[in-house]
């Protein structure tokens, strides 16, 4: 972290954390002591804390219990805990390359392994990547079926975060998976946020996971854990992946705090995600209404109706002025609507994007509250043209 980044963090965190009202709590809103105290209190409801701490992921300890509960939640034979999702997916895709005899993975160019892992698939595992489509959505069955290059594994990110947390319909997803099977390819789900997909698909997690050969899930995205991930699927594949976890340095001596936080997430947050998804639709609709009535010359809420409890908002301002406006609103009014903005992937200059998350803290917000907060937020921005589009 650079000195300027440290200064910005020191300025923004107090502003965000001082807000009395927010749509979701952030990961940096507590002191270390407060977070530890909360973990101990909540953990007692998720696991017997009178037992011993485990080492190296003892199957009779907290990590083993987390793996069993994860497999049960997804309806798979087994699951293995990993310190990061990056490592979990590299291990999974490497295992499938060995089993299929093909080192080529079909991935969307916006998928996490392509955009966020420093070319790890190629440099660490020796795999190559092909793209069935570059459209800002998951590939269709026709695109998978007609892909010009052969591949052994199709990896689908559910939801596709960079495109606005987008999901296909259930019929589209099943057709795409079937198209991969027609090409004798296996299917892996990058399900970091698969926990909140059940509402959109109208299916339970086991039915969704059953479409794929393996599924990766995150414990800190959506579930509010400290860190960590799991790979779930057939026992033989999970065991192979666990061996690669050890080779990659992921067999950590003590990782029970992260596992305990994940168990809390499975117990407390997972059952509430459908409620968050439903309320995100209310928040997004109110945002659209407020922006339509505003003088902002151009804006986008993407997707129009969220598929999960997260979605994007695009505005024609700079990243710094939007981030500063959100911090000032939090400081001066006690309402935190937006945190840090960023330059959107593939967007033209002069636009900024924010990923909105609706969780427990946001359930008390009415549509009117959202509209008022938007109008208030825009008041902290410099005036713009009065022409409107939406």
From TrEMBL:
GO terms for biological process: glycine biosynthetic process; L-threonine catabolic process. InterPro entries: ArAA_b-elim_lyase/Thr_aldolase, PyrdxlP-dep_Trfase, PyrdxlP-dep_Trfase_major, PyrdxlP-dep_Trfase_small. It comes from the Bacteria. GO terms for cellular component: cytosol. Keywords: Pyridoxal phosphate. Its cofactor is pyridoxal 5'-phosphate. Residues 54-289 form the Aromatic amino acid beta-eliminating lyase/threonine aldolase domain. Pfam families: Beta_elim_lyase. GO terms for molecular function: L-allo-threonine aldolase activity. PANTHER family: L-THREONINE ALDOLASE, L-THREONINE ALDOLASE-RELATED. Belongs to the threonine aldolase family. This is Threonine aldolase.
């Amino acid at each position: 972290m650079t000195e300027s980044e440290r200064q910005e963090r020191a300025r923004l965190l107090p502003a965000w954390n001082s807000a009395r009202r927010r749509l979701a709590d952030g990961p940096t809103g507590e002191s270390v002591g407060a977070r530890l105290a909360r973990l101990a209190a909540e953990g007692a409801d998720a696991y017997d804390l009178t037992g011993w701490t485990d080492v190296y992921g003892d199957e009779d300890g907290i990590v083993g219990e987390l793996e069993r509960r994860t497999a049960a939640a997804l309806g798979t034979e087994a699951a293995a805990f990993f310190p990061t999702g990056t490592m979990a997916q590299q291990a999974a895709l490497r295992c499938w390359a060995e089993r299929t005899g093909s080192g080529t993975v079909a991935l969307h160019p916006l998928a996490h392994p392509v955009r966020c892992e420093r070319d790890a698939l190629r440099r660490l595992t020796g795999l190559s990547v092909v793209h069935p489509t570059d459209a800002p959505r998951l590939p269709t069955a026709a695109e998978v079926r007609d892909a010009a290059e052969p591949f052994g594994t199709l990896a689908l990110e559910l939801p596709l975060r960079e495109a606005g947390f987008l999901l296909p319909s259930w019929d589209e997803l099943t057709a795409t998976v079937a198209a991969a099977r027609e090409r004798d390819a296996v299917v892996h789900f990058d399900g970091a946020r698969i926990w909140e997909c059940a509402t959109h698909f109208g299916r339970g997690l086991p039915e969704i996971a059953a479409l794929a050969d393996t599924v990766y899930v995150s414990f800190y995205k959506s579930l509010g854990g400290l860190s960590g991930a799991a790979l779930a699927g057939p026992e033989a594949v999970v065991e192979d992946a666990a061996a690669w976890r050890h080779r990659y340095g992921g067999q950590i001596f003590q990782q029970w705090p992260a596992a305990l936080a994940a168990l809390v997430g499975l117990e407390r947050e997972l059952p509430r995600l459908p409620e968050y998804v439903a309320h995100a639709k209310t928040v997004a609709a109110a945002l659209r209404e407020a922006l339509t009535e505003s003088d902002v010359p151009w804006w986008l809420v993407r997707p129009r109706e969220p598929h999960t409890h997260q979605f994007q908002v695009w505005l024609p301002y700079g990243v710094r002025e939007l981030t500063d406006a959100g911090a000032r609103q939090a400081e001066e009014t006690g309402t935190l609507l937006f945190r840090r903005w960023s330059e959107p992937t593939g967007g033209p200059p002069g636009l900024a994007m924010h990923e909105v998350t609706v969780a427990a803290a946001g359930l008390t917000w009415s549509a009117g509250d959202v509209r008022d907060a938007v109008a208030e937020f825009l008041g902290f921005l410099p005036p713009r043209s009065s022409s409107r589009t939406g």
